[in-house]
Amino acid sequence: MTDASNKTFTLTNDQTGESVVLPVLDGVDGPSVIDVRKLYAQTGHFTYDPGFRATGSCDSALTYIDGEQGILLHRGYAIEELANKSDYMEVCYLLLHGNLPSAAAKSEFEHTITHHTMVHDQIHNFFRGFRRDAHPMAIMCGVVGALSAFYHDHTDVNSAEDRLISAHRLIAKIPTIAAMAYKYSIGQPFMFPRNDLSYAANFLHMTFGVPAATYEPDPVLSRAMDKIFILHADHEQNASTSTVRIAGSSGANPYAVIAAGIASLWGPAHGGANEAVLTMLDQIGDKSRIPEFVKKAKDPDDPFRLMGFGHRVYKNFDPRAKIMKEAADEVLDLLGLSDPRLELARELERIALEDDYFVQRKLYPNVDFYSGIILKAMGFPTEMFTVLFALARTVGWISQWKEMMENPDGIFRPRQLYTGEAQRPYVSLDQR
Ligand code: CMC
Question: Residue 340: its pLDDT value, please?
């Protein structure tokens, strides 16, 4: 962030004629921002931006999105390159530390993560408090939040060492907890992690393995899982990441902060969309009914929206959706499956992209449009889709939290435009 250019923006009060000069800050890329931090002190006014459509809430060096061009970069590397040439552990290191690791740093990082994958034995009992039919996202919110009760030894948020230890623990344990949430729901025993497997393969083992047999994860499926994790690793200041930053700005411990992120991700407008896409495709059922659902999505009086379509930032193809679509083809080919939902999704995409309503509003498929189809083909039940998103996004959340804690700006405390009653005298009960 720089204001070396001395660019400014002058804001004039049309009633009084008074004006203030506001600094304009340039990032490395993307639109410049008007620095309004002193606006209230200078003018007695706040800015008003519900939904944060025009507000930069922080500066960050992690992720860059150009929504018009459909570009997504992590620490300067394009998502396409990371998805096709890198692996999730490397992307985790990159997000946490800023650069790709050397071979030695990579193997040390993998060793650290691998050796933190087990959870405290008491957590097994904690699970048993949940109903078997609990939504796994409800379990994730509860168990991840509870981690601070189990790993209280390193939760000094002002210590760089503690922050890194918590980050490693969270990245390492989240697949174990996610797999446990699944196993619990189907009544199978929890599977211990295996240190000889990669991060993604170990997750498949903990999810689909059983103690009675040896499970060897398919390398192609493990690679597809790894790619799905990469595609979800971070995404700038979205709702859950902003939730993480806001929760963390009070000095809350990282486990509580990540639990807050998981809760925010759960909603269907955010991470819950992958589950909603599959439900929608099942509801549509047949290509002949697509026009009926497209009509509903366009009706301003109908709350129905095409799930997996549209994005606050992307006004072009979500680059992750393209990679996801290719991965869906690969996985279905490998498994020799032909999911009619894939055909339906392709046709829905084709029809929507030719429709003026979607064209004018620049509504394109997002990452969630095809992810559910792959996850279903891999054997995950629909309720697990958002859990997988949370698993993969944990590194983004914790890296954003770490970045914020390294350069704190104090507590996040937005203001409001008050629309309630003006002060009025209390009326006693017998007078109402
Ligand atoms: N189907 C039909 N119309 C839509 C859709 C959709 N999926 N998305 C946006 N619109 C319309 C919306 O009704 C509005 O129309 P009008 O201008 O006539 O009022 C216009 O497009 C602009 O929409 P908006 O609600 O102002 O856009 P937003 O930036 O607030 O919302 C969004 C972004 C992702 C919440 C929204 O597009 C949506 O609800 N999509 C479906 C849910 C979804 O797929 N979410 C996953 C997002 S990507 C992964 C993630 O972030 O977790």
Answer: 86
First-residue to last-residue Cα distance in the chain = 57
Report how far residue 166's alpha carbon sits from residue 369's, in angstroms, rounded to the nearest whole number.
32
Q: CB of 311 closer than 6 A to ligand 1?
A: yes
Q: State if residue 240 touches ligand 1 by the CB under 6 angstroms criterion.
A: no
Q: Is the CB of 367 under 6 A from ligand 1?
A: yes
Place of tokens 């869906």: 328
SS3 (DSSP) at 83: helix
Centre of ligand 1 to C-alpha 277, Å, is 13
Rounded CA separation 120/118 (Å)? 7
- In one letter, which amino acid is 158? N
Nearest Cα residue to atom 26 of ligand 1 = 312
pLDDT at 114 over 70: yes
Distance 361 CA to ligand 1 centre (A): 9
DSSP E strands in 201-269: the ranges are none
Residue 95 C-alpha from the chain's centroid: 14
Q: Per residue in 17-53, pLDDT tens?
A: 999 999 999 999 999 999 999 999 999 999 999 999 9
Contacts of 142 (CB under 8 A, 6+ apart): 126, 130, 259
- Measured over the CA atoms of residue 269, residue 273, residue 56 and residue 11, the dihedral's sign is negative
Query: Which residues make Cβ contacts (< 8 Å) with residue 48, sequence separation at least 6?
Result: 417
CB burial of 16-48 (b: ≥16 within 10 Å; e: otherwise) equals eeeebebbebeeeeeebbbbbeebeeebeeeee
**DSSP class of residue 76?**
T
Instruction: Point out the least confidently predicted range of 1-15, 128-142, 165-179.
Output: 1-15
Give the model's pLDDT for residue 67: 93
Active site residue 111: no
Reported as half-sphere exposure (CB side, CA atoms, 13 A), residue 334 has a value of 16
Measured in Å, residue 312 CA sits from the centre of ligand 1 at: 7
